[in-house]
Amino acid sequence: MMNVDVMRKIDRCIGVPLCFLFSLADRFLKSLRRAKSTPPKKILIIQLSEMGSTVLVRPSVRYFKDKFPDTEFFYLIFKEMKESLFFLDEIPQTNILTITSSSLSGLIKSSLEVIVRLQKEKMDAALDLELFSRFSCLLSRLSGAPVRVGFDNFYAEGLYRGSLLTHRVHYNYYNHISLNFFALFKALSADEHDAPLVKEHLAQDEIRQTLLESTEEGKKVLWEKLKRESPDISPRHRLIVLNANASQLLPLRRWPIENYIQLAKKLLDNKDYYIILTGVRSEMPDALAISSAVNNHRCISLAGKSTIQELIDLYNCADVLVSNDSAPPHFASLTSIRIVVLFGPETPRLYAPLSVNRDVVYLGLACSPCVSAFSHRKSACTNNLCLKQISVDDIFQRVQTYLSGKSHAPFE
């Protein structure tokens, strides 16, 4: 992907004037707007950059599909994130549209190709799941959809996206992000003039995840893969998965690599435990650094070697996942694995995985959370003590508690 700060700068410097110009044009073109379809038959979901969000929007997609089974969904996402849509089987592969973020020229070219496709498809509605991104808002407008739903800034300063949305939803930073996504879907059937939307109670228990089961063949293939890495491993061993990275979008979310090394060494004192390191291809160097420092045949790295389906199979076979706040805890929430997830610069109130088996670790320092939708998820912090002060002994004890069959009180 392009550098995140470069993408933010492009979004601000080019996005703001374009949003203004299109908003100005829309004032004079209202009479030419295509008639709405109620309920909408074709809905475009725009969610470009966060892999974990595809899991958190899944209950809302299922809710709407159950209510209106004839609805056809389309999904627009960065090409580099496409694999995360594995969980949304309500959306056929032919309806998944991608834009590349690897270069500016590629971004422009692929965006124009997507816009042409969307215009031909004649979308009835577009849901912008991004948090105050001008780029996604412009894509919503250029899709040609007469109904455009997204988060509006209303009276907040510094988050200008013009007046391109027809249904303006209040982003409620007291509610979990899955509920905010649910509000976007609810807004489709609301009165667009009754701002801010939506004026109804949404309960967290309405957001239900259905678990993904692994086939026996899938589990067999996984164990064969693990055996190739460490021949002595077998189902009688306890598997602890460590995800030591966070996305490039917010590296402040990382617990120090040295802590993962210490944690792995402490856990491997028990001869029945195996450590499985995971991550995407770009995270292979960190996984290699951990496995080299641990220097134990019971520490296996699958970083850059697994598909998301294989990751689900791993979670269904393993006992505990320890991870920074990132996409894997959300993937894991679709299985019954115990999840220990570390939060710091972002709040679990908004982003905790939707699992009854989660154990959220959050110190709640006075400066935390320091990133939000209103700061475009950028922080001045260069010393994430909110994570560094979480001790290895604390995480070790939490893992041991799970492995002993006990459980922690869930985060509320």
What does this structure look like?
It is a single chain. This protein is α/β, with parallel strands linked by helices and 412 residues long. The protein folds into two domains: 4-206, Rossmann fold; 217-403, 3-Layer(aba) Sandwich (Rossmann fold). The protein is built from 15 helices and twelve strands. It has a six-stranded parallel β-sheet with strand order 3-2-1-4-5-6, sandwiched between helices. The protein has a six-stranded parallel β-sheet with strand order 9-8-7-10-11-12, sandwiched between helices. The two termini are 35 Å apart.
Summarize the structure in short:
By secondary structure, this protein is of the alpha/beta class. The protein has 15 helices and 12 strands. Strands 3-2-1-4-5-6 form a 6-stranded parallel β-sheet, sandwiched between helices. It has a 6-stranded parallel β-sheet with strand order 9-8-7-10-11-12, with helices on both faces.
The assigned structural class equals alpha/beta
| Share of residues in helices | 25-40%
Major sheet summary line: 6 strands, parallel
The total domain count is 2
Q: Name the average pLDDT.
A: 90
Oligomer: single chain
Key terms:
Rossmann fold, 2 domains, six-stranded parallel β-sheet, 15 helices
Blueprint (SSEs and pairs):
Blueprint: H1 4-13, H2 15-29, E1 42-46, H3 51-56, H4 58-67, E2 72-78, E3 96-99, H5 104-121, E4 125-128, H6 134-142, E5 147-152, E6 167-170, H7 177-187, H8 216-229, E7 238-243, H9 257-267, E8 273-278, H10 284-294, E9 299-301, H11 308-317, E10 320-324, H12 327-332, E11 338-343, H13 348-351, E12 358-362, H14 385-388, H15 392-403
Helix pairs in contact: 2-6, 4-7, 9-10, 9-15
